[in-house]
Amino acid sequence: MARHEVLSPKERQVLRAIVASEGDVAHYWPVDEVPAVGDEGNGTQILARVYAPVNVDLAGLWRELGVAMSSASVGFDDSAPLASTRRAITAPELR
User: Fold this and answer.
1) pLDDT, mean of each 10-residue run, the chain (95 residues)
2) Are 29 and 23 in contact (CB under 8 A)?
3) Quick one: 29 exposed, middle or buried, by C-beta within 10 A (0-12, 13-18, 19+)?
4) Residue ranges of the domains in the chain?
5) Hey, is 82 helix, strand or coil?
6) N or C: lower Cβ tally within 10 Å for the chain?
7) Could you give the C-alpha distances from 47 to 12, 35, 57, 93, in angstroms and in order?
8) How far apart are CA 37 and CA 33, in angstroms?
């Protein structure tokens, strides 16, 4: 969440429910517990739907990004379909 964002009343309600249930950095929660508590706090199933587990083909994603890994190093393939995306992600931040 960016610092400049203003939270809606529902978003504040979700965060309050999570904090009230000891949802902070001092406590470990399984990842599926956060949306369940947040949804309970605002009476919806929105977070459960948005944060539902998905299967990701990481090997395929690395390949499409042009990231080639070996046991000793990582290389980049600039001819990969998503190489421009990888370059944008890894580029130094402009200030």
Assistant:
1) 65 81 78 83 82 86 94 93 94 80
2) yes
3) middle
4) 9-50, 58-90
5) coil
6) C
7) 14, 5, 23, 31
8) 6
Q: Is the CB of residue 67 less than 8 Å from the CB of residue 85?
A: no
- For 23-76, the DSSP string reads -STTS---TTHHHHHHHHHHT--HHHHHT------HHHHHHHHTEEE-SS-EEE
Q: How far is CA 57 from the centre of its chain?
A: 16
Evaluate if pTM is beyond 0.90: no
Cα angle for residues 61, 66, 67 (degrees, 5° grid): 80
